């Protein structure tokens, strides 16, 4: 309802004018209240809309993840991807609608309330003030006595001036009222009309979007009917097959012949036999593990999981024999014996044992028949010459290179897409972070420097087993939970495939260099984490599978060889009792170059510990003491001992120093605690992140000392491979070699003497070729690397 005030009436200042003014003021006050309420409701609507959009985005991301998981079903993947794109468009339209509501209602009406209504209130204050002054002047003029002329003149002059001021202000006030009454209509209608047009645009856009999507939806509806029919048919077929297999199994149970159910034969792929067997490990505990064995292509191999690379037990069946084993406690056992090692296995029944023995014997006969013309190659393979090193080492290297390494790494959750931009099918990796990368992101990571990221190709480079297992322990999902913990909270946009390189580079630097999205833990959270890791380490230490062995692990079975003068070379076992002083004595107690190629673990009884020399015990039981201060370095310290790579990666992301020293625990470092934990992969992770392999504790012992004292052969190999100083002495003037000799650990004594011999042969042979390049492919170097890698691979296999 429009309320106007007449200008003529305001000059009279009549009761009718005063009544109109009171009505206007009441209307304006009520208008202000209603507008304030409307603005607050608009703000609430916008906030609720933003929350709805955020939840809707998560829902759409869930649809995208489901589409990515359904890559093998093209119909589901393409349909879900299209639906996710359409719903994302609707979210964008909703965002535009709420932005328009912000501009048209909240901002515009707030401006009207703050500007125009404020001017009205100021004009009202001036009008009320001058009205009071006019009333006072009228009263004073009426009270002036007739006989006092000067008072009469003064009262008359004041009244005249007050009336002039009142007329001026009341006219301005009435003008402000009339302008406000006119403007309120245009402002309210303008804001609401703009808001309604925003709704119109929103629904038009949604209608157009789903009109384009409608043909696809109709097509999927038709396909859905056919899918229901096909599913019913497949169900009937599977029920029929189930019934047939069940009847077949019942007949085999009746005939008491279970061999056909327990193994498979696939002649097309060269598989003579495959099935589950129990395998006795070659460690000191002689544990039995159930593995999937296969006789294929003249080889006996086994796997723990289907995606794992097969472990070759016998590379050439022509070099081995098979026999029953009746002299052990377990039933149905048989043994496959090769010139270098033996493998004890157990079947589930006597018929299965006979079937496996017959299959091995048939495969041996077939191999001799099919490859009878390759006797020259067989002689080369069974000899102990230097050339046998290459033929024996190549298959193992190939199994860790190219597609096999790629498949193993991509099988980890989150690794099928680039960790930083989401590009599918990454072919590169950062080995110190444990993530997969596309080619563009890998180039950016290289530019950061190796102190932030070490990049390697998943298809072109050769992958050592310990490095491959390190990649499988982490993965994109684990690392992104650490380095992107606050990304959504900060509103940072993650790059998408096809984004400009400079945007991706800025995001990667913010993520890994500045660590902007890492969630910093509170002191209480850090304390809880450290205490939890220390308790976890105690539980693991109490498990006999992870405790250091009471006796050294089995000694590699080395073939007797001859040195250059024709004299026989002593075995490593005999060399334990000799002094480590002098290169001549060391060379005499170390296997020759020819025998190095055939050095593999054998099933030999563990060497007894001398009664006069008890094995050293650096830290058999770790006790957690309340530290003076909790820090990321302390978290890395205990996580290394607890073998928790995700917690170690989290500590490094929070700024932990990889060579952090625990002054309250004899200056031990995380790498020393990783040795105590017994995990080779944990040591590899720290070394890849620039851990000092020679840093010593308060006793003067480095990681190599501790690995030797605990009998961790694989770790000793790893540290020697990474340049550990085996001549370093502790405060008792003991080297790792003297410690190993005292403990009668034949494996570690042999390894340390091989390393020392290799160093001396480098100096004797000359490490540089004529071109000035270091000759890393010399026979001595290749034999040494192969021997080291076999011990590392053995410990990784046994840690399964």
TrEMBL record:
Protein name: Arf-GAP with coiled-coil, ANK repeat and PH domain-containing protein
Superkingdom in the source lineage: Eukaryota
Biased composition (Basic and acidic residues): 371-382
Ranges of the ANK repeats in the UniProt entry: 666-698, 699-731
Major place of residence: membrane
Lineage of source species: Eukaryota, Metazoa, Chordata, Craniata, Vertebrata
Residue numbers spanned by region Disordered: 371-400, 523-615
Record keyword Repeat present: yes
Polar residues bias locations: 562-581
PROSITE patterns (alphabetical): ANK_REP_REGION, ANK_REPEAT, ARFGAP, PH_DOMAIN
Membrane topology of this protein: Peripheral membrane protein
Residue stretches of biased makeup (Low complexity): 383-392
Comment field on protein domains: The BAR domain mediates homodimerization, it can neither bind membrane nor impart curvature, but instead requires the neighboring PH domain to achieve these functions. PH domain binds phospholipids including phosphatidic acid, phosphatidylinositol 3-phosphate, phosphatidylinositol 3,5-bisphosphate (PIP2) and phosphatidylinositol 3,4,5-trisphosphate (PIP3). May mediate protein binding to PIP2 or PIP3 containing membranes.
Cellular compartment(s): Cell membrane; Endosome membrane
Residues annotated as domain Arf-GAP: 403-525
GO molecular function: GTPase activator activity; zinc ion binding
Composition bias type Pro residues, residue spans: 603-615
Keywords in alphabetical order: ANK repeat, Cell membrane, Coiled coil, Endosome, GTPase activation, Membrane, Metal-binding, Repeat, Zinc, Zinc-finger
SMART domains (UniProt xref): ANK, ArfGap, PH
Cellular component, GO, one term: plasma membrane
